[in-house]
Structures are given as structure tokens and as C-alpha cells.
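In response to reviewer comment 3 from the previous cycle, which asked for concrete evidence that the modeling workflow produces usable outputs, we include below a single protein chain processed end to end. The sequence was submitted unchanged, and the resulting C-alpha cells are shown without manual editing.
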Amino acid sequence: MESKELKLKSEQLRLNLLKLINTGKTGHTGGDLSVLNVLTVLYNNVLNVDPKNPKMTDRDRFILSKGHCAEALYVVLCDKGFIDQSELDAYGTCGAHLGGHPDVTIPGVEINTGALGHGLAAGVGMALAAKMDKRNARAFVVMGDGEQAEGSIYEAAMAGNKYHLDNLVAILDRNGLQISGSTEDVMPLESVRERWTAFGWDVIEMNGDDIDDILKTFASIDYNCGKPHMIVSKTTKGKGVSFMENVAKWHHGVPTAEQYEQAVKEIEERINSLK
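The workflow returned the following C-alpha cells.
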């Protein structure tokens, strides 16, 4: 997809995401919105996956380590044809297939996630297995910045370096906020670049709010450099909804009827301008 198509797709998915959360009456809205642009580009321009054959051997593996942002993944998987719209429509109801965190019973989901700090280690294992089997498959792992306080991440970071996993791409959704406030107040992360460089990773910073920069960044990755890749994706929590942007309380939350109407209006205006 070209840049303009992706920008339109991202806004349409943003609208679908708000509808899902509004109907289901649950969701980690702020983080869903901050990571949505990256997921849009990954699934439409980067990942080698096939909804008609979700278990194909040489597929790329995607792990949403910040599994509480499942709603963003669900709307993307539905758009790609992995899951049916009827499953989105049932979200939040008793007995619904889609839960608050992704699980392996959902087509396109590689591993149950939501216990923070586990996704990168799983990605290391998947990337290493592909190397051992001499397959071209890659592993992509999206993590939250609040998640970086988990020690298991840094064990995985050392293993990624040791085994020269240049087929492993970690993406840090660096929106600066977690459930209890600013990441730098709760558990400071900076300098993220210096930290991951010291672990022996290829570190790239990008504007995760900008589709063009996301496209450029993924296109620049050297999968033969002998190092795993860390993309520090600088984003805005609540991106695309004015009253949610950079507001910690929207880590989790459902808009009121009036807020939902305002959010939809903002997104629809951008959709119309892109058409």
C-alpha cells in the first residue's frame, strides 16, 4: 500500500476501534490508539502472513506483548480477513470468543499475551528457531514502555544479541504514559537508545504517529546485519482523539455518549479529507 492509502486505512481502523470499544464497553483505549499506525503498516506492508493459511511454515511471527491493547490488534486482524466481523460485534458480551487479551484460539495470534514482559522472550525463541531451520521467517514484537520495567525483557535482550537474531524486530510503543502515570516518574527508561545499544541491538528511532516515517523506518531495516533490531516508536497515547491525547486516565476507559460522538466526528473529518 502507498502512503495515502495507509493513512486512510489507519483512520478507518481508528473509527472501527472506537466503535468496538464503545459497543463492548471495555478497552485500553489510549494504548490501542497509540499503536494503531504501526499495526496498520506492519499488516499491510511488512508482515508475510496469509489469512487463508495462518499457519504457513515460513510466515512472519507477530507478538503483541502489550496484550492489553488487544482491541487494536482485533480490528486489524478483522480488516485482513483473519477473523469475522461478527466476532468483533460480539466483543464484550458473555461467551464472546475475543477476550481482553489475545489468545492462540484466534487466527493470526501466535501466543497468549498480556502477562507483561514475556513477549520478547517468545520472539527470541521464534527468531532463533527460524535461524536453526534455515527459514526466512522473521519475528516482530510490540512492547509497551511501562512494560520495560520487567526484568525478563533484558534477559531476552541479551539472548537476542548472543544469537545474532537479525530476523528479530522489537518495537517499543514509547507513548510516555502507563496506568499509574508518566513512565519517567514511575520507573525512568531514558536513555532507551543507549540502553539497547549497550545490549548490542541495532536501535532505530521513529515517529510512530507518522505513517511516512513508519514506512521509511521498516524499509531501512537490514536483516543481514547480525544484530536484533529495536525500533523506538515515539507515539501519542490516545492518538487521533483530541481529548484523549497524552491523558493518562485514558490508559483504560470507555467514552461517554457525548465523547464518543465527538471522537467519531474528528475521525470522520480526517477520513473525508483523505478520500
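Residues 165 and 228 are 5 Å apart (CA to CA). We consider this sufficient to address the reviewer's concern, and the full set will be provided in the supplementary archive.
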